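Late entry, evening session. Most of the bench is empty. Finally got around to the prediction I had been postponing all week. Sequence below, unchanged from the version circulated by S.P.
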Amino acid sequence: MLRIYCTENYEAMSRKAAAVMAAQVIAKPDCVLGLATGSSPVGLYQNLAAGCAAGDLDFSHVTTVNLDEYAGLDGTHDQSYRYFMDHNLFDHINIDKSRTNVPDGKAPDPEAECRRYEALLASVGPADIQLLGMGRNGHIGFNEPADTFTVPTHVVTLTDSTIDANARFFASRDQVPKKALTMGVGAIMRARRVLMVVSGPDKAEAVKAAFAGPVDPHVPASILQLHPDVVLVGDKAALAGLVETGVEVCV
């Protein structure tokens, strides 16, 4: 089942998505949260941190698993996804950091690290909610457009469009890592619920292709059409193309 919530702007999108995740934490204090990085979930994380500070949310028994990490970056690097999670969420909530999991970008054997992370995902069980953003080319995590869907955690060579999109976070495009370690579609699809957040007109075509087009590995997010419980929260600009197709949207 796909439920779509259309919000006025990024701030409203962030509040709505945070409410979905907060409800999960309240309902199941020892839940497993699959987390994502990038600009889309920052506002959501700010709302969760505010809820924790107000005493409304308790993360002390929560386990988290992140989607991905750049290959070659240490967790202390300011563009690593471990650093991102610490500074945007973990440092602001009462979570036990030993229960937070991000692939090790500095692992000497990236393939072995992928196998380790896949085993870890199996050991903690499926995520109760897997948070996702979506790239302009339809990627989820770092699962890039390809001829087939890759199921397990794997090393991926980033496409030029993904490198271009992420270059704004680095001093130059040349500094953007060319490879990443990413959760495959297997763990994403095993999640009990998927929560996707999208914002801005530059995501409109990808959203339309993912949810109103065919299931196609060249649009990796389209695999979510086969998931039994997906919540899509987006602002008007990001959902514009999808609304044009006549898909039912909640306000």
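Two things to note before I forget:
The first strand starts at residue 2 and ends at 7.
The helical segments are 10-27, 42-53, 81-88, 110-124, 160-166, 185-190, 204-212, 236-244.
Will write this up properly tomorrow.
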